[in-house]
Amino acid sequence: DAGVIQSPRHEVTEMGQEVTLRCKPISGHDYLFWYRQTMMRGLELLIYFNNNVPIDDSGMPEDRFSAKMPNASFSTLKIQPSEPRDSAVYFCASSGTGGPTNEKLFFGSGTQLSVL
Amino acid sequence: QKEVEQNSGPLSVPEGAIASLNCTYSDRGSQSFFWYRQYSGKSPELIMFIYSNGDKEDGRFTAQLNKASQYVSLLIRDSQPSDSATYLCAVNMRSGYSTLTFGKGTMLLVSP
Q1: Contact of B87 with B96, CB cutoff 8 Å
Q2: Chain B environment of A45 (Cβ under 8 Å)
Q3: Cα angle at B101 between B40 and B22, to 5 degrees?
Q4: For the range B61-64, what are the long-range contacts, defined as Cβ-Cβ under 8 Å and sequence gap of 24 or more?
Q5: What is the pLDDT of residues B10-28, one digit of tens each?
Q6: Which of A63, B49, B52, B81 is deepest in the core (most CB within 10 A)?
Q7: How many helical (H) and strand (E) elements, i.e. helices and strands, does chain A have?
Q8: What pLDDT is attached to residue A20?
Q9: What are the chain B neighbours of A42 within 8 Å (beta carbons)?
Q10: Which residue of A has its CA nearest to B48?
């Protein structure tokens, strides 16, 4: 299995531009999570999906952030317009179902976002 | 605000020693507990999980849980330089499937 695949690995953009981050979860996993990691705040959950449906987006910082999961194998996180304070590493993670072990998260390699 | 607290470190230990990493959590109703290892510039990787009070051993790693005191710890025996990483404690603070709350992590440095 290829694991969780994220793209791009690095993104450098200017303030005000639209940024789209992409994620392919592990096949068969029906939970998908988007996290953001910074030195100051650590790993923060932004939003998660179950069977392609958004369950909890209370971690999305503001309306500039949006996430979609059009099918079981693809999700996007979009920031429009981007701001310098959005600079962080964004991780996508997935997990399966079937008892307590569904809580084991498998992380993608992350997208390092720099907004200038 | 439900929180998971860890000492940021760095925790420095010599090669071959036991490294002890600690984590406290605020929600007494928390059900499951995880330790993730994150190498610099890499993504977190699950190394241990524990659900019941007591110890759970896996190779050189031992997770310890004390729900009454609301702490969970990770012991690494015979520490190796390759163990140098940041260790993240994660807690599921609700019963049933939920989401994990992560601590900010403790950096471990193992010197040869």
Answers
A1: no
A2: 99-101
A3: 65
A4: B61/B35, B63/B33, B63/B35
A5: 999 999 999 999 999 998 8
A6: B49
A7: 0, 11
A8: 98
A9: 88, 102-105
A10: A104
Residue B82 — φ and ψ, nearest 5°?
-70, -10
Q: Cβ separation of A42 and B103 shorter than 8 Å?
A: yes
**Dist CA B100 CA B94 (whole Å):** 9
Nearest one of B16, B17, B34 to B25, comparing CA atoms: B34
Expressed in angstroms, the distance from the first to the final Cα of chain B is 40
Structure tokens at B17: 């020693």
Query: Does A70 contact B at CB distance below 8 Å?
Result: no
Q: Tens digit of pLDDT for each residue in A39-56? A: 999 999 999 999 999 998
Among A32, A29, A81, A103, which Cα is nearest to B49's? A103
Edge-to-edge order in the sheet of strand B4-5: B4-5, B19-25, B71-76, B61-66, B54-58
Tell me, yes or no, if B94 comes closer than 8 A to chain A by beta carbon: no
